[in-house]
């Protein structure tokens, strides 16, 4: 699950990112309204944490712009000013939840998880490709009616391949989706995980379906 944090307080942003990573989320984080809006428009996030007060704008405007651009990611707005009027304004502009500062990290994580669960319930539960079936609700994958035991990141990688079936997926895309923007793009971690995923996908027979596109990335065939 990928989360975007838009928060200008560096210390708080670091704390929020760390606690989400400990709860098995992949996290991107920025400190300005402009950069946050650009990232939310350019990629698909399972939830967005959006501060109301930002140095180059305000979270209300970002929220409004994202909804007008048909970004469907759940938005959790946070603000040191938690008056009822501000909460109502955020919700009316399209935010899904509002958490006033200061707050406990445990509650923050619970709110994010609740938003992600709601999003999961709205999207397609099962992805199918040939003899592969991926159940997004139970986090299970089957091939030839036999369950494959994938790690969390292998599951995320296969999900991305299934959604991009037939198209070339670059290593940079996989790093952004499965890890986060700060990961070393020159690392061979993608190749290692693709090798492992290929091996597991052919455990019970069946052809290799992940093709290497030399110099570019991979493609599900």
UniProtKB/TrEMBL annotation:
Protein name: Response regulator transcription factor
CDD domains: trans_reg_C
PTM-bearing positions, type 4-aspartylphosphate: 51
OmpR/PhoB-type domain mapped to chain residues: 124-221
Record-linked Pfam families: Response_reg (PF00072), Trans_reg_C (PF00486)
Keyword Transcription annotated: yes
Annotated signal peptide: none
DNA-binding region positions on the chain: 124-221
Record keywords, A-Z: DNA-binding, Phosphoprotein, Transcription, Transcription regulation, Two-component regulatory system
């Amino acid at each position: 699950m990928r989360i975007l944090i838009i928060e200008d307080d560096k210390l708080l942003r670091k704390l929020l990112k760390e606690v989400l990573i400990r709860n098995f989320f992949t996290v991107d984080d920025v400190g300005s309204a402009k950069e946050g809006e650009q990232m939310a428009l350019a990629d698909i996030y399972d939830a967005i944490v959006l501060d109301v007060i930002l140095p180059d704008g305000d979270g209300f405007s970002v929220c409004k712009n994202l909804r007008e651009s048909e970004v469907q990611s759940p938005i959790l707005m946070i603000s040191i000013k938690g008056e009822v009027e501000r909460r109502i304004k955020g919700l009316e502009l399209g935010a899904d939840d509002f958490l006033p500062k200061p707050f406990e990290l445990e509650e923050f994580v619970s709110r994010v998880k609740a938003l992600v669960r709601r999003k999961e319930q709205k999207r397609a539960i099962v992805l199918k490709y040939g003899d592969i079936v991926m159940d997004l609700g139970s986090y299970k994958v089957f091939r030839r009616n036999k369950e494959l035991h994938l790690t969390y990141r292998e599951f995320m990688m296969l999900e991305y391949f299934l959604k991009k079936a037939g198209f070339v997926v670059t290593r940079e895309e996989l790093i952004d989706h499965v890890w986060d923007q700060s990961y070393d793009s020159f690392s061979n971690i993608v190749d290692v995980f693709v090798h492992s995923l290929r091996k597991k996908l052919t455990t019970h027979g069946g052809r290799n379906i992940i093709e290497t596109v030399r110099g570019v990335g991979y493609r599900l065939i």
